[in-house]
Each structure stands twice: as structure tokens, then as C-alpha cells.
Amino acid sequence: MKLKTYLWTFPAWLQTIVESFLMDKKLTWRIFTVLDGLIVFESGENMRTLVDYPIFSNLFLVLKTFQRPKGSADMFMQVVVKGYDVVKPAIVSKDMKTFRIIHSSQNQLASIPDKMHRKLEKLIERVTRLQTNRSLPDTEFWFIRRSEKIGYFVQRLNTHKSKSNKLQRGELAKSITYAMCYIAGGLNDKVIADPFFGRGGLAKTMTRFRRPARVYVSDIDKNLVAQFSSSYQSVKKHVADATNLDFIKEASVDAVVTDPPWWLFEAIDDIKSFYENMLQEIIRILSKKWVAVLLIGAREEFESVVASIGVLTNERVADILVSGKKASIYLLKRG
Question: Is the pTM above the cut of 0.85?
């Protein structure tokens, strides 16, 4: 088993969850570095398996590490000087024809001086036989310089966003759905409900990375319900108002993981009343040892309602941005 060094990036709000994930998972990785929004590790695991972890944003193959570089120019020159030995380990598959070079300095995209940029491109062209395409390449080579006085020259291994499927309106990124399911804890062999399943992202994550006994998915939008399909036999879909889940028996669900309307996008006259009715129905269907994980846009109103109900303990696990809008992930338990 040949070991390679990889670099993973993830949204900064996931830091605590990622660190917990690394401790919980029985991973065969050797962790070298954990920084804000970034980990570097060694693994012999199949690259496709690594790319598939949705909690991470981008996976890179580390070609060179720079300890205390004097600046980005120093990093560029070191790659030019070492040339072939640095670039040769890059992964070039049959379907790769083009590449481009990206420079990130202290988490901000930055330019590369034209002369040096072209010199680096010619080097990669010569070693890999790939052609430069600065618009829409098949792969990317990144220079990453961090404020922690460390830098990396890496090759991006996952698909460029503009070449992959874009999120539909109302659809959550996989990193968010995975984080929410992870926060909910052990979902294997459990009965789960998502009463605002929308595009079905949470349900897809539950059934792909967990083995629940049953998943109730429902939405008031009959078109979304009709469009949703799952090969997972235990997924039961319904057209229903989340404040009246009469198809679910009392105290029969182990976990609710859901993304209620945000009030910013949907016309809800009284968001507090909506939250109260929603939570009362969630409390009705949940068993004694239960959890609920919710992604909430109207944080102040939601926390006020939770406090007024009184039977819940409420933890705000993470503050995030979704399509540029502030939101929070909450973990609720019976008080």
C-alpha cells in the first residue's frame, strides 16, 4: 500500500466537527497538520474514497511543503528550481488534457507575476504533457501560503465546481447535510424524519452514509415529493404539513434532521407561531431518547420559542453561511 500525502480543506465553521470526526473515525491516516479550515495527512486509502467524504470541500495531493517560506515568490522559485522532481508525482489520468495554476495567499486568491506564471506553466506542461487552460481546466495546481508560516504546492483532485452539478434552488451543500447527520449521532438502525425535505439532500445523505431502519420524508410541496426518488427501500415519502405529521405515530421516531423554511424566502406571517407549532409536532413524534438537528435562519425568534417551550435543551452547534445568508445548526434534546 503506497502512502501519499494529501491536503483537505473545509469551511471554517466545520472546524470543531472535523476535529471530532477525525477522533471518532477509525482512520488509517497519519495526521501531520490541522489548521483552521485545513488538514494535511498521509494515507494509502483509495483516492476516490477520499474525494467522496462530503464533510470536506477540496482534496489536494501534496507535491511540496514549504516550511517558513519568505513569501509566495520564494515558493514559486523553489518549484522552478526543483522542477521535474516536484511535479512528477502529479496524478495525470487519461481524461486529463488541461490544467491551470491557482495562488492562494492567507486564504485569499492572489495573482502570480506574468513572467513567473508562464515559467511555471511551461514546467508543468513539460513534465505532465498537459496543456494550459486558464478558464476551465481538467485539473489545477495550487500554491497555498498560510499565515501560520507554512506553504504547499498541491494538485487539486476533486472536480472543479463549474464542471460538476450545481446546487438547485433550496438545495443544501453536501458538507452541510453530512455535518447535520453527524451531529445527530448514531443513525444506524434508527427511525428518522425530515418533515421539510425539499430537494432531498438530507435524506440522500442519511441513506448513503448511514443505515437507518426507516426514513420519513415529507414536504408541503407535492411537486418536490413527486420528483424525489430513492433506491433505499425504507424511505417513505409523504405530502404533508410539518405541523401535522399524522402519518407518524406518537413517540415512534428516534431523530429529526431537517431544514425548516427560513422566513427570508418563504411568506410566513408569524415565524414564532410557526416554530412553536413545528416544535410541538416534533416533540410529539420523537421517542424518549431522541435528538433533533435543525438548520435555522431566524435564530433570535427560534431561540425565543425553544426557551418558552421549556422541555428542550438547546445547543447552537455552528453558525454558517448558506447562499450568503446567515444560519445556525441547532441540536435539541429533551430537557
Answer: no
